[in-house]
Amino acid sequence: MILLMAVSLLTSCVASAPAVVAGPPRPYYDSYYRVAPRPYYRPARVVVRPAPVIVRPRPVIVRPAPRYYHARPYRGHIRY
Fold it and tell me: Which of 6-15, 38-47, 71-80 has the lowest mean pLDDT?
């Protein structure tokens, strides 16, 4: 019984699959309908351009500004 069920499942899967017949390639006919060797088209040369180089600007080091002549000296409070 189990063998019969397994065989029926297997045959149903095979029957549902599309039949792909892999035979010899079809002959090539030229413009005069004569059998001729198939022309080989060499693939086009692909020119690969290099990616653009992204140049990042150099970091600017900002030094602290000098004390201005009108600045008040530090007298114990927090300066902002």
Answer: 6-15
Q: Which of 46, 14, 41 is nearest to 6 (CA)?
A: 14
User: What's the pTM?
Assistant: 0.26
d(CA 34, CA 32): 5
- Residue 53 sits at φ, ψ, to 5 deg, of -85, 125
On whether the CB atoms of residues 27 and 35 are closer than 8 A, the answer is yes
Q: Could you give the C-alpha distances from 6 to 3, 17, 76, in angstroms and in order?
A: 5, 17, 93
DSSP state of 17: S
- 35 forms bridges with which residues in the sheet? 29
